[in-house]
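Practice problem: predict the structure.
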Amino acid sequence: MFAVGEITVRAPFGAAGRRLAIFVSDGALWVASEAAYQDGLDAGQLTEPVEGAKLARVQYAKPVQRGSTLRMPLRWEVSGPAGELFSVLDADLTLSCDGDGRTRVRLDGSYRPLFGPDGRVPDQAALSRITTASLCYLLDNVADAIADPAPEPQPGAAPVIRWWPGTGEP
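Answer:
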């Protein structure tokens, strides 16, 4: 397991948890994950790029709250050009109360590269750069969404997507 990082945002813990739920339910986690994966590829500078590799699936479990800590497990699965599973990233996104209306957002993960179609393991140093850059980008974007001061939706109101990386639209 490697720690990716931690950011403190100006948002009360309860509001941060609700904003995370909105971020996930509105589909912004998938969009942010795709953008983070691409940013990681750009930063990774692979010596032998894996043509056609793409982020195939983003999974998450229901967040679990214990006291003033909320943890949500994530999994990214990257597929190769023929659709075969290329790599898996498991991470925990953790929110914790930091007092005075602030919340710490932390991302810890482990990366499991799989053998390529030729039986070789891809460049480990480059994969480490890709993973670190991807998760740092994701952490920054989740923290931005959680710190969003926009009003929270009213019960029964239609969801309003407030945050998308990149173009500003879904």
